[in-house]
Structures are given as C-alpha cells and as structure tokens.
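Deliverable D4.2, example record:
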Amino acid sequence: MSKTGELIKKYDFTFRKKFGQNFLTDPSIVEKIVDSSGAGPGDTVLEIGPGAGAMTVELAARAGKVVAVEIDSSLEPILRETLSEFDNVTTVFTDVMKLSDEDLLKLTGEGAIVVANLPYYITTPIIMRLLEGELKLKSITVMVQKEVADRMEAGAGTKECGALSLAVQYRAKPVRVMTVGPECFIPRPNVDSSVIRLDLYDRPDIKVKDEKLMFALIRAAFNQRRKTLPNAISGSSELGFTREQVADALKEMGLDERIRGEVLDIGQFARLSDLLTAK
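Output generated by the structure prediction step:
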C-alpha cells in the first residue's frame, strides 16, 4: 500500500465527490512533476489542492517556501502528520477561487511557481483565474485531464480551441511534460491525465489596451460559440456593446460580420478589443 493509501486508511478519510478528489500515489510521478516545475531554494510555490500531501513533501524539500491551499478541511490531520518535519509550509484551508489576487500575493509574493493536481471539474476556471490575474507568476505546472492539455495547445480554428487556448497563448508557452494513466491515482479516474507546464511571459508579445476587456470578449465568444461574433458579444451580460458596434469593428478589421469567434486568433481578439475600447 502507498504512503497516501496508509494515511487515508489511518484517518478513515472519505473521498468527497463534490471536490473531484483523485490523489497521486506514484512517487516517481510526483518527483517528475516537481522536477518539471523547476522549484528550488529561492522559490515560493503555491500548491493548489495538496490532498494528502505527497507532492507537498517533495516541494517543501526543494523550495524555499510552500503555500498549500486545500478546500477540504477534513484533510487537516493528514496534512499535519505528513508535513510535520517541515517549517517552510503554510497550509490554508479555503477555496482558492475565493482568494483575491491581493490575498494570494500576501501569501506568496510576486514570482511564485504554481504546482497543482487539479480537480477535473474546476480545472479551466482555476487556470483562467491564474492567467487573467495580476499575480506575476513565474510558471504553472499542473496535472489536468488529457483533453484539457490538448485544448491548451490548440490553435485558432480547430474544434479544440476555446477561451482557455487563447488565454494560454497570450500569457505563456505550454510545455507538455508527460501523460499519466488512471492507475497512478486513488480513486482511479476514468480518463488519462497530462502534466503540462506553462512558462509565463514577462510581457505578452501581443499588445492590447485593455486585457480585462479582451478576456471578456473571448469568454463571450466561446460561451456561445455557434453564434456570430456580433450576436455573441452583444448578448453578453458582462459587456455593453451593441451588435452594430461589433459589426463595425469587424468590418474595420476586414472581417465578415457573420464570422464566429472560434476562428479568431489571440491577435485578432486584441485588435477587436482595442477597436471596441475606442468606441
């Protein structure tokens, strides 16, 4: 039985389906993930979802500081035992999505490395939140469902391309590390997983006047991806543009107003955002 399995049995821990918990049990996979993150003595690591702490231990042994954010407070006694020999780990029991950028910056400072084995049901919202925020992260190394890793690498116009694809392309260079089978987790998921590292740019190559507006336009386009772009954007409660304003901006870009958002690349969304900002 793995160390994680022993702890789960010892503390009579019950997996909670609503948290999408799948704990890594293979030490070699844990080591490869931490290796790929590049965490070292001068780094602060933000670990999202430490679970029973298998990866937290490896991170704590290498990094200067680890901040572990865990939504399930029933894991507290397990993590207390697992991390008992380390004084460089801060454990916070809360939903990371409820922490503001200011909260996280107080915990980690700028330039943190994110490492996470993310629950499949909330993978995209967490990654989007990290990419859209003002955290000035160094890199993000995550275990995700394989198809999500595929989407991060997808180009414009492909069926896999979505809001996550464009956000990743704008902020980072994705590097696929490895594929991990279901047998490496308890409980076993029904799909393969992938580890992917996002090396964040100091400054995005693409310039845009209002990043928040650009991301809002991308969300509107892909929330209703079968609609034309003017209809999708004008129908968004998050935005206040009319169909005519969007159609005029597309015309200025030399694009047909019947175009759908899924065919635009990140540079075109940046241009559209700038034109609508001017309006």
